[in-house]
User: What shape does this take?
Amino acid sequence: MTQRFFNPVATHFGPGSLAELPTIVDGARVVVVAFPEARALGLIQEIEQLLGDQLAYVIEDVSPNPDVALLAGMYDRFWQNDEACDTVVALGGGSAIDTAKALIVGTQSGRFEELLALLADGKPFTPYRVKTLIAIPTTAGTGSEVTPWATIWDAEKQKKYSLHLDCTWPRAAIVDPDLMLSLPRHVTISTGLDALSHALESIWNVNANPVSDAFAISAINDIMTCLPLLAKDLNNKALRSSMALAAMKAGLAFSNTKTALAHSISYEMTLRHGLPHGIACSFTLPLVLKMAWGETPERDAVLQKVFNSDCQTAVARLRNFLHQLDVKTEFSDYGVSSPEALEMVQGAMQGARGKNFIGAKSIAALP
Assistant: This one.
């Protein structure tokens, strides 16, 4: 049976690779979408020096988990000034890159409400106009720089929307570990665990293939070795580079499989309980691993390559790894009762990402 793997993102990796930005944008007019702290960290000034007159303006009011309430005005203003740029450069973590992905998808009216209606419809559509996207992650976790996925939230209506089009693949990604040196411990851990979840989710996935497995296995081994060390030595450039590469490999893995049950559960944990994404999608990993193991011999073989053990030992190792990073692993730790947890997992299995999970019938594995 033929296996396929596709990723169109031209990736530039390594310390100091941000300096390649002028060559990558190739004379285009640029709008930068950045996280609010980027200017205080000196990153906006560095971009200004690199781009000079090619930089049209900077959008700096990106919020975590981009919400329709903020995106609407940002989107409408962006397309009212359509001619200002050809290319959007996303500088930041997943929220900045997801925001940029939403902005580059132009509707005929230039209004966000039209885009939201298309997303709510859930059917594929062709954008009326688009901008080119360049992604520069400043966290080692999201993988969004090498994937087409973007998540848009509606906290008021307790909904999330998934954006995925041909144009939301970044044309290029610059993964410069030097940009991650300022990350505090809790963000380093949360984003690193997001990457771990991406890699594991690509393995216990109905869309898995040998190429995605190879990226995932390597990413998991690197993260489980590196992240505890990095959490104790945040200024270590070698560890930052290792985590940046591991997160990118995890992104490459799930760029072809999408995520699965742990992420499907995470959306409800974020909407209902306000849990940060990296924690929301990782605290259930031991539970989901237990549910996945034993479903298919082929997937078991890959999980055994990762953990070099049986199911019980692997689950304990993964749980202890999370505890070592001060991440609790029970629903009750986050104020979720057993009935609500069961209902949440059952509902998550019916979601688009939940249906990617190989153990969709293994609800009996729940405690």
